[in-house]
Every structure is written in structure tokens, then in C-alpha cells.
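pls ignore typos typing on phone
zinc ion + seq
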Amino acid sequence: MPELRRDPILGRWIIISTERGKRPTDFIVETNSVKGGFCPLCPGNENTTPPEVLSYGREAGPANSPGWSLRVVPNKYPALVIEGELDKEGDGIYDKMNGIGAHEVIVESPNHEDAFSSQSPDKLRQIFWAFRDRIIDLSRDSRFRYVMVFKNYGRAAGASLEHSHSQLVALPILPRMIVSELEGSLSYYRYKERCIFCDVIRQELKQQVRMVCENEHFISIAPFAPRSPFEMWIVPRRHSSSFVALGEESFHDLAMIFSESMRRLNACIPNVPYNFVLHTAPLRSQPLDHFHWHFEIMPKLTSIAGFEWGSGFYINPIPPEDAARFLREVQI
Ligand SMILES: [Zn+2]
Ligand SMILES: [Zn+2]
Ligand SMILES: [Zn+2]
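k done
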């Protein structure tokens, strides 16, 4: 019997439809490669990208030369542009503004073949540290209100370059999804005077049915109302609304839990395409009692078709309780 489930933060409904009793092996990733050939992100090709805004690991030599272990460059084909004023304009009932923003590519490694899911914890820690560095730097620009950090892996998930990279977009307005999470968590807080995410953590630790893995500072869960099979959320155990407030000592645990979650996912569905996003408080906001930063990892295994698009309901063929069990039990 299909089941309707409501996400407790967003109020978004999803449909768990298990009629065909899916297992991980039912999701075969046929072709996941993106175009090969010349790679602008490989060492030696630094002059083919816009000048870097951050690099780690280069001990000698000028900027934009080889020797780096991680490099951040503006996107050559940005969705938003950094130069200009943020002019807001009304046209009758319509509002518009200039497409001001920053769009950057985090080149995670000089090695073209490296995959995020098999990177060492030290490397992952460096990547997360780069996210932090860039968010802090971009938060100094008062035109920006939010930095969306995300990764697309595999053609089906929107990646257009094979070389392992993640991206960020600094935005002059708060994305709708963040507004919804802020509003949903605030209305829960007003009612219960507790953070909904902290309550989710408590319940998941107690019930132990949607847990994927855990360590001292983080838990990884299959959320109660997942949009996609094998969706996972990585949530810090200690309440904090902002990713950039995370202490340096916790980055190791973040890298470890991300690494384990991704290795488990890959062991269930080899070479699975996926997206992940960071949800954190708006730039320059005071610590919020009701909001709790987290990563959401969304494997790309089902397509968004007319029904989902028109209704906003996602149909998920695997209950998260089953997905979490597959993820926990798989050999890694
Ligand atoms: Zn490359
Ligand atoms: Zn919390
Ligand atoms: Zn979220």
C-alpha cells in the first residue's frame, strides 16, 4: 500500500510507492560518464579557467600555476555575474533585479580520476574547509544574502565536466528552499520552543530505523519523507544554525561521516549519480535557535516527470527504513 508522508520541516508531502519492492540492484546506472577530451580543470591548464580565487597546497610558484591540491575558480559560464549593482526594479505587478551573484567551481583535486566518494577523509576535510573559506569571504559582500554550495556528480545529476569538482553560487536573495526551511522550523519552534532538527536527531537515535551511520559530532540518516531513493541527510549533533560556525576540530568527523555515507551509497549502487547541497543560515545572520545546518545528499535515480512537476509530490519507490537498512548492512 503506498503511503503519503509529510516532511516535518517543510510540510512537503511525498509518496512512498513500494509496489515493485525495489532493492538497490534495481537501480542500474547504465552510463554515467560525462564528456572526455580536454579538461580545463587539470593541472597545466590553469590559464584556461578564470583566475583562481583560492588555492591550497602550492608551496612555490605563482598563482594559476600547477602544484595546488585544491583550487577555486570563477565559473567560466556563470549563472550569475559578480560585477554590477543590485538594481531592483518594479514593472507594474512584476519585480526584477540584476543577475548579480558569484558562481565558483571548487576543483577538489589535481587528479582527474579522483571521485569524491572515494577521497580520503583528509581530502574531504580540505574540501569542506574550502567551502567554509569561500562562504566567509563572500559574506563580506553585502549584496549577497546566501551562498549555496552544491555538487553534481554524473551526467544524470547535471555534471558537465568529469574532473571532480563542486560549485557554489552566492545569491542576492534567499533561495525558496531555505526560506521554507527557515519558516517551517520557526513555526515549530514557536509552538514547542525546540529546534525541529534537534528533535529529529533525538527521535532517529532512539528509533534506530532510519540511521545510516554516526560518529561523535554527526549523524547520517535517511529522512522520514525522502524525495529520492537513498536520500541521506548529514546533521551535526550539536545545535548550530551556521556551517561556518563549525569548529575546526569537528571537520574530521564531518569528513569521516561523509566518506562513510558515500561509500555505503556507492556499495549499494555503484557509480550512482547524485547531488548534494549545503543548507545553512543566511549570510551574516545571528545564531538562530530554530534552524540547524545540514547537508542533503540526493541520489539521482528517479526522474522528475509531469506528476511531480505539476503537483510537487515526489514518488519514491523505496521507504527510507529499507534504504537505511540496505545502507547500514552493505559491506564497505
Ligand atoms: Zn581533469
Ligand atoms: Zn537544532
Ligand atoms: Zn535542508
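The longest strand covers residues 146-153. The chain has one domain: 3-80+94-329. more later
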